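So, could you explain the following?
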Amino acid sequence: MKGLGQRYVQHVNRAYRRSGTLFEGRFRSSVIEADSYLLACQRYIELNPVRAHMVHAPGDYPWSSYR
């Protein structure tokens, strides 16, 4: 499986003239220092399923930590 994944990434990199891992640019982490910003990030994450009209309330989403 590892070899298959490596060959797939090489194919994608050649096809789209890019380099690096498959999810390199999209997924990254940042340090959150201010408590107010942490709360804003948590609100954003918990309300995404509501904004996407997947559920009516944040607690209704099965993978939510809202509850």
